[in-house]
Design brief:
Layout (H helix, E strand, L loop, with lengths): L1 H29 L7 E3 L12 E3 L3 E4 L6 E5 L4 E2 L15 H20 L5 H23 L7 H20 L4 H21 L10 H21 L1 H26 L4 H9 L6 H5 L7 H24 L12 H6 L2 H18 L11 H6 L3
Antiparallel strand pairs: 1-2, 3-4, 4-5
Helix pairs in contact: 1-3, 1-5, 2-7, 3-4, 3-5, 5-6, 5-7, 6-7, 7-10
């Protein structure tokens, strides 16, 4: 009775974390929506009392001598105060920049080279990176023109990573970590493709997010229906992205991939002049790094597959060979069957050679 209660409680917590991870993905998409002013559109003919709103871009006004530039809100004709557009990345090799540089290499290199073998650290990194991205995007899109210290944004963002990492390390966060890693794998590939061109891949800003959504769905689908392939490709994708970002930070500092990420994620109206109006113009070396990191994904994934043939779990069992090629959908069916057997039989005795699909996959030992 107590064992059944603990198992149901663990399943409930795991399911809750999975739902939360999907919610984080939704918020990541929602947080990219432009923070620019809105203006009333023409009233509807059928319903004249209804007022719809459309998003518009501020107007940049430059003085005749070019010494003064002002951003005007067309809906109110009022000036929009512009800030320093701080993002926590620092300048050149300042302390925040060095912290981020160490972070992307510390997380990216292990994922790229041995993510399939790191088990709990990999699932922890999946949730941690998702939380870090969400917190960072939320801050850069919501801070006022006065800005916030780079070191404060850095500490808060990395604190979010620590919390997410701890959740993913424990067994209750395992499923959420796996699914989140799949989404991040597709997301990291989509970002690199979008950042290849100056001004993003598609001139229409919102269209780029549809491209990202497609890659995120593909990454999640790969994780759901062929787990080992999904893990290998996602670890290689996320790891190679972080390593490429680190190399680019060394070579181009904040004017390469970092500038592209700001242009993609930061639509704060107080940063319009520094981010949106300035545009995104990647150096050639950044474009080379983006393309090379994408090309490295299948190589890194295949290398991990050959070097680390053991399943994605701490302890191997006889049935691991079957579970590693199974999908998460099949695991869910196995869980339902297990629960039915337990209810009908009252108790169940496990043998080392007949461990169930689900328990062999998600054993915390």
């Amino acid at each position: 009775m107590a064992a059944s209660f603990r198992q149901n409680n663990s399943s409930l917590l795991s399911g809750l974390l999975t739902v939360l991870s999907c919610l984080l993905v939704f918020l990541a998409l929602a947080s990219s929506v432009s923070c620019l002013p809105t203006a009333p559109a023409a009233p509807s003919v059928a319903f004249p009392e209804t007022q719809y709103w459309k998003r518009i871009e501020p107007v940049v006004v430059t003085s005749d001598d070019g010494g003064n530039t002002t951003v005007i809100d067309p809906s109110t004709n009022q000036e929009i105060q512009q800030g320093s557009a701080t993002d926590g990345g620092g300048i050149d090799f300042s302390v925040p920049a060095i912290i981020w540089l160490a972070f992307v290499f510390a997380v990216g290199v292990p994922l790229a080279l041995a993510g399939i073998r790191l088990w709990r650290a990999t699932t922890g990194a999946g949730i941690g990176l998702a939380l870090t991205a969400l917190v960072w995007v939320a801050f850069v899109n919501s801070i006022s023109a006065e800005g916030l210290s780079d070191i404060v944004i850095t500490v808060i963002s990395l604190g979010a990573f620590a919390i997410g990492f701890l959740i993913g390390v424990f067994n209750i966060g395992r499923m959420a970590g796996i699914l989140t890693l799949g989404v991040l794998g597709g997301f990291s590939i989509g970002i690199r493709i979008i950042l290849l061109r100056p001004g993003l891949l598609i001139p229409k800003y919102v269209a780029n997010w549809f491209v990202l959504a497609v890659f995120m769905i593909i990454g999640l689908g790969a994780m759901l229906y062929r787990r080992r392939f999904g893990l290998l490709s996602s670890c290689a994708a996320v790891g190679s992205f972080l390593v490429a970002l680190g190399i680019d930070l060394i070579l181009n500092k904040q004017s390469g991939m970092a500038a592209g990420l700001r242009f993609l994620f930061d639509r704060n109206s107080a940063h319009f002049l520094a981010i949106v109006h300035a545009g995104y113009h990647p150096p050639v070396i950044t474009q080379v790094l983006l393309g090379a990191s994408i090309g490295a994904i299948p190589i890194l994934a295949f290398a991990q597959h050959k070097i680390f043939s053991s399943p994605f779990r701490p302890v191997s069992t006889v049935s691991d060979a079957d579970t590693d090629s199974a999908s998460l959908v099949e695991e869910a069916a196995a869980l339902n069957k297990e629960k039915t057997v337990e209810k009908e039989g009252g108790s169940r005795t496990d043998t080392p050679g007949s461990e169930s699909l689900l328990s062999s996959r998600f054993s915390s030992s």
